[in-house]
Design the sequence.
């Protein structure tokens, strides 16, 4: 079979003939149906700092995956041939495309412990996107932020993650306000169901926030969230727009704020996203490409030309 493989930084992906995988102990082989593309794929191709994360080279990349179980290895009892699944990239099995050959190929071998059942009414494109962007957003809002019905929630940044995070908070029963500097995105905030949208989280003068999730992470955005969060409120930082932030320790102490970082998520978070998707109310925007278009898709991500999440379809 042919696979898109990474060989080295500053080198293009190569379409390489590789052996078809077989299922070892505790593993399954997936017939790939969809594989998401991510800005981390851009980083891998451009930044030598990513090389230490790779188990081998060349390696088939692709860490956002959904497919159908095509083969079951010894010791696997929870899944069978024909099951629709997504692959959580944060389990002890490691991340596809980093710890082992990933999803930019027709078939992929993966430990069964990484699999999350995909509901029948959730398509494979959404199923793949949920394993990274969906999982990360859900974990930040629900698992780390503890958002629940009746909470007043601020979402900073309405990009790919922020859009999902805002909708997850709304589906959890929260009242949501969005801070987004790009006014072209404001109509989307209204479409999602947000009660208000401004350029800065500080512009909601009469709103008291229980939780603020910063999907931008541009230094001042985090500092402002700490300044205005209610006493005993929670600020969750997801975005890494800048790698440092200067916050007021006075605000942190007087507000007795919980300041939490959120990185990725778990199988339970992926399953939570699937539950919301199955209702039909969580339907993130997806741009679809074919398997042959994966390298150009990564270039489009680099140029900022992609709307929503970018997913390669194998169907």
Sequence:
């Amino acid at each position: 079979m042919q696979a898109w493989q990474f060989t080295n930084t500053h080198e293009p992906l190569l379409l390489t003939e590789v052996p078809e995988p077989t299922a070892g102990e505790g593993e399954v082989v997936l017939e790939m149906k969809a594989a998401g593309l991510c800005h981390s794929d851009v980083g891998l191709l451009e930044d030598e700092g990513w090389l230490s994360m790779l188990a081998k080279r060349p390696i088939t990349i692709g860490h956002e995956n959904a497919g159908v179980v095509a083969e079951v290895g010894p010791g696997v009892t929870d899944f069978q041939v024909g099951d629709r699944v997504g692959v959580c990239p944060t389990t002890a099995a490691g991340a596809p495309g980093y710890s082992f050959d990933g999803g930019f190929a027709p078939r992929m071998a993966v430990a069964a412990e990484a699999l999350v059942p995909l509901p029948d009414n959730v398509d494979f494109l959404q199923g793949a996107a949920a394993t990274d962007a969906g999982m990360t957003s859900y974990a930040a809002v629900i698992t780390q932020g503890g958002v629940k019905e009746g909470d007043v929630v601020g979402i900073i940044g309405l990009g790919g993650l922020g859009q999902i995070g805002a909708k997850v908070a709304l589906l959890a029963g929260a009242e949501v306000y969005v801070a987004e500097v790009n006014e072209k995105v404001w109509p989307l905030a209204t479409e999602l169901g947000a009660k208000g949208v401004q350029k800065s989280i500080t512009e909601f003068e009469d709103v008291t926030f229980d939780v603020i999730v910063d999907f931008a992470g541009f230094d001042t955005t985090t500092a402002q969230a700490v300044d205005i969060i209610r006493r005993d409120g929670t600020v969750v930082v997801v975005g890494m727009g800048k790698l440092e932030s200067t916050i007021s320790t006075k605000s942190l102490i007087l507000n007795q704020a919980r300041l939490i970082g959120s990185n990725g998520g778990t199988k339970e978070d992926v399953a939570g996203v699937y539950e919301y998707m199955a209702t039909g109310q969580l339907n993130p925007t997806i741009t679809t490409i074919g398997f042959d278009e994966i390298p150009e898709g990564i270039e489009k991500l680099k140029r900022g030309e992609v709307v929503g999440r970018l997913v390669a379809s194998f169907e």
